[in-house]
Write a structure and sequence with these properties.
homodimer; about 400 residues; alpha/beta; Rossmann fold; six-stranded mixed β-sheet; 14 strands; about 15% strand; globular; TrpB-like_PALP_sf (chains A, B); TrpB-like_PALP (chains A, B); Threonine synthase (chains A, B); threonine synthase activity (chains A, B); Ser/Thr_Dehydratase (chains A, B)
Chain lengths: ~400, ~400
């Protein structure tokens, strides 16, 4: 059927390295953070990969996430796990106020969010490395993706989430075979419990960037974008930033694509978008700092980016600065207005985090930060269907005469 | 970007004909039902299409729904409307009890259901034919798809739905720019009001099969399936059957593919799946009748197939019989169990209508109606995320000592 899932294809992985110190770690071993307490990055022999694989060969494959096998860490085809990771469409929203605004609609992935990209890879690697029990803190969508893939791979899963996590997320996590617990705290409070259990050897810790492979899955957003646009990149990318794995992953992907000789040196300006009620990266960006202090009393309607402290903070800030982009903040009212406008005007229902990127884009347009004629990609990280929508109370009694003029 | 949306490509449409009498109607005109009160079918010059277009040429295109332009009715590229109609994945569910069971996951389409296929085509044709106001009865998902595409195309829309339509559907319809009304009745009661307004010239009637183009959109399920399986078809298809447009459309697609010389004469056995609380097609099938009488007091957890009377009843029954398949009935408890099992065992969350096809498959397996080693496709017609899920009440107090053994 889909060759990407069943054909034997080599990975060109060589090793891992600490994102802070560059210290080298062996591939094909179970790793958490580096000895310096920082995320590990997976490295490939891109010269060899480029010799073995051409852009044309890739174009001939099915377009799902697993077409990038050579640039992904999974070594044995038998460990590939899949629930149909389709290439997500780029949808123009002509009424967004600018010129060429494309929404990358990540809600089309399994479990309805971009979290599937990271978790499908992390679970496949967990299977490859013999992990049998995983725990993870989540604001919702990541837990849903983990539950689905771990169930698929026959791995036991414990998920902890803040007690105000959207109901649909908690339920889908449970439905898909994980054990899920609501915790009276935020995602980093959940993460502390997961870390404690991991230290006691009870499970493997799947927190954002605490295992090295979610970022490899997320980087496919960048690979896919290049392929979809005919091996060029947009002028700017607006990315809703919580843990920031996707932004870091795309930045890594662009670097790998250039080393493969498949794109040039030009990069999009990366805009990390956060909510006014939880904007640690924006604060650090504006203060010119390398790391971001924890944001106290975090609160926003965009639960997915309510991450008070990101372990990859310095990687996010570095990518944003290198790209010539910015960290931008938008308020909840602007987020909700953007969601409403996009649905009502362009027929596309965004999630609040996707709405945040549209709100940030509009603001950047007003501020002259982006030009009207620049091609821009906004990431809608999950299906809008998972989120509360306003009531629609109109009713009609068919047993009475119908006032057609009022319809 | 996606050539399918912007390249000039000819349609090979020649005319329309009445599905009952064969009477011929002109293409490129606005049509409702035929003079005999039956659905119109769109006909193509397949010899010319086959000469102009090869399977290989198709394989080189982007895989979305609009790659089939030559076999679709839209004449002018400018009328193509799109929200990213991706090719939906075929996902194996190895723990379903049989051999090679594939779920075609239609929840990945815009607005989260297969209704997008029919409505994107009907709205594009409405635009092509100058329609400015549309009304439609819906059980939910079709209204959501209509709202999104009509908004996109700048067409005014009125949607009527039963008052117990899932809340998420009613809200998304309103969000996406349609005017939506709850009616104290079933879908055919809503349809009667739409019909009355249409008769008064207030709007164009978009009811299932009352305009000729939804079926052309739905037939892409059959085209896609053939392309995905390497130009062969599965042994059996289980299809959740309300109005039956998709089943009729797929049957039409297979016929067109054979005339193009792209597949042989072999066909899948088509199983029309209905719920015990609303099974007019099953009743007619078993009685050997050509038409299906209205089902009174229709009720099922699978709202999408709660259609008491289908205007295309004879076309559904004809396709099922010609294929050597059957109309099958499953109860709500079996439907809910199938949804639960598939999520818990294979990590795939089906909608209730998709669950109905799995329940029917299991039953057919037990009854010897299908063999264990037969390749079978089940249609999951919408994302499971739109439907109620059981509560997951576990909570954990992080201010107290954690009992890790209990997690």
């Amino acid at each position: 059927m889909n060759d990407n899932l069943v054909a034997e294809r080599p990975t060109f992985v060589t090793h891992l390295e600490c994102s802070l110190t560059g210290e080298r770690y062996e591939a094909d071993r179970l790793h958490g953070l580096s000895r310096a307490g920082r995320p590990l990055l997976v490295r490939y022999d891109l010269a060899a990969a480029g010799a073995a694989l051409s852009r044309d060969a890739l174009t001939g494959r099915e377009t799902d996430l697993w077409r990038w096998r050579e640039l992904l860490p999974v070594r044995h085809t038998a460990n590939v796990v899949s629930l149909g990771e389709v290439e997500t469409p780029l949808i123009p929203i002509p009424r967004a106020g600018g010129g060429r605004v494309l929404v990358k609609d990540e809600g089309r992935l399994p479990t309805g969010s971009f979290k599937a990209r990271g978790l499908v890879m992390a679970v496949a690697m967990a299977r490859e490395l013999g992990v049998t029990r995983i725990a993870m803190p989540t604001n919702g969508n990541a837990g849903a993706a983990l539950a689905a893939y771990a169930t698929r791979a026959g791995i036991e899963t414990i998920v902890l989430c803040p007690d105000d996590t959207p109901e649909v997320n908690v339920r889908e996590i449970a439905m898909q075979g994980a054990r899920v617990w609501r915790v009276n705290g935020l995602i980093d409070d959940c993460g502390a419990i997961v870390g404690q259990g991991a230290a006691e050897g009870r499970w493997f810790d799947f927190s954002t960037l605490k295992e090295p492979y979610r970022i490899e899955g997320k980087k496919t957003m960048g690979l896919e974008l290049a392929a979809q646009l005919g091996w060029r990149l947009p002028k700017a990318i607006f990315y809703p930033t919580g843990g920031g794995t996707g932004l870091i992953g795309m930045w890594k992907a662009f670097d790998e694509l250039e080393k493969l000789g498949w794109i040039g040196a030009e990069r999009p300006r990366m805009y990390a978008v956060q909510a006014a009620g939880c904007a640690p990266i924006v604060r650090a960006f504006e203060a010119g700092e390398e790391h971001a202090a924890r944001w106290e009393d975090a609160a926003t309607v965009a639960a997915g980016i309510r991450v008070p402290r990101a372990v990859g903070d310095f990687l996010i800030l570095r990518a944003v600065r290198e790209s010539g982009g910015k960290a931008l903040v938008v308020g909840d009212p602007a987020i909700l207005r953007a969601v409403d406008d996009c649905a009502r005007q362009d027929g596309l229902l965004l999630c609040p985090e996707g709405g945040a990127t549209l709100a940030a884009y509009r603001q950047a347009l007003r501020d002259g930060e982006v030009d009207e004629d620049e091609e821009v990609v906004l990431f809608n990280c999950a299906t809008g269907l998972k989120y509360p929508m306003p009531e629609a109370p109109n009713a009609l009694d068919r047993h009475k005469p119908i006032d057609f003029d009022a319809l």
